[in-house]
Design brief:
The chain is elongated and about 90 Å long. The longest helix has 53 residues. α2 runs antiparallel to α6. With 251 residues, the chain is an all-alpha fold. Helices cover 80% and strands 0% of the residues. The chain folds into 2 domains: 30 residues; 213 residues, no CATH class.
Length: 251
């Protein structure tokens, strides 16, 4: 589990709710018509903008931010070094039997076992990187659009509330609920954009860069194994991807 994503989300909402409770009654900030306008309008608009499958994939990707812990460069480097040790000890063909949940790493091991040309490995992994970036870019764009739609529908709710309020000026008792819709819809849209959608888009972008780096390490490791098959030399090359302060403890 990614503690930073979970902790940041909890702290953000806790501070907002705490500020509300310190200043008054929480029930004052709950308005069903306002939520219908902002939440319903935002997700209706996003379904019009993108195919439903892209919207679902984006939300599944957002959930994975909580469940999937950030991988370390050091771990990928050490995996490739262990693969180099196996290939040196048992031969390249032994890499066909390596079990891993990472399909890209499994494909790289298969290419090494087949003694594929380094250019073929490069082309294959570049295609994988491009596909991954395109897939992630759609999810990131979904959340960027959601961050724009939320405040926009908040403003629509504000206009609706103002129209209702102005149409009932002769009835003072109805001004309060109408004003609540006018103000709270903007509040809801802003909260959704700045505590949910934009942070998720930013974390997805960071994860994309991280996964791209991991794929580059796998490519360079596979290339090095085919070129010299020396685990120490493989490590010396791949350790360049690590921050300098972490290289001494990597092995």
């Amino acid at each position: 589990m990614d503690i930073a994503t979970l902790l940041g989300s909890i702290i953000g909402f806790a501070l907002v709710i705490g500020a509300i409770l310190l200043g008054g009654d929480m029930s004052l900030f709950i308005n069903l018509p306002g939520l219908m306008i902002v939440v319903g309008g935002t997700f209706a608009a996003i379904c019009v903008t993108f195919p439903l499958q892209d919207v679902l994939d984006a939300h599944m990707g957002a959930l994975s931010l909580f469940m999937k812990k950030k991988g370390k460069v050091e771990d990928v480097v050490n995996i490739m070094v262990r693969i180099a040790e196996i290939s040196r000890r048992e031969g390249l063909i032994a890499l066909e039997n390596i079990q891993t949940e990472n399909p890209i790493l499994k494909k790289a091991c298969q290419l090494i076992a087949d003694n594929a040309d380094p250019q073929l490995i490069r082309d294959t992994l570049m295609i994988e990187i491009g596909t991954m970036k395109r897939r992630h870019s759609i999810s990131i764009e979904v959340f960027h659009k959601l961050a724009g739609f939320g405040p926009a529908f908040g403003m629509i709710g504000t206009l609706i509330g103002l129209v209702q309020m102005l149409s009932k000026l002769e009835d003072p008792a109805s001004l309060g609920p109408a004003m609540a819709v006018a103000i709270l819809t903007t509040f809801y849209g802003t909260i959704m954009a700045n505590l949910i959608f934009l942070p998720f888009a930013g974390k997805m972008k960071a994860r994309t860069s991280q996964e791209e780096l991991h794929l580059q390490i796998i490519f360079e490791g596979a290339k090095s194994i085919l070129e010299n098959n020396n685990p120490r030399l493989v490590y010396e090359k791949l350790s360049s991807f690590e921050p300098p302060k972490e290289r001494k403890s990597a092995r």
